[in-house]
Amino acid sequence: MDTVDAARPAAELTFRAATEADVPALVALIESAYRGDASRAGWTTEADLLDGQRTDPEGVAAVVRDGSSRMLVVERGGELVACCQLEHRGEHAYFGMFAVRPALQGGGLGKAIIAEAERLVRAEWGAREMHMTVISAREELIAWYERRGYARTGRTTPFPYGDERFGIPRRAGLEFELLVKPLG
Question: How far is CA 142 from the centre of its chain?
Answer without folding.
Answer: 13
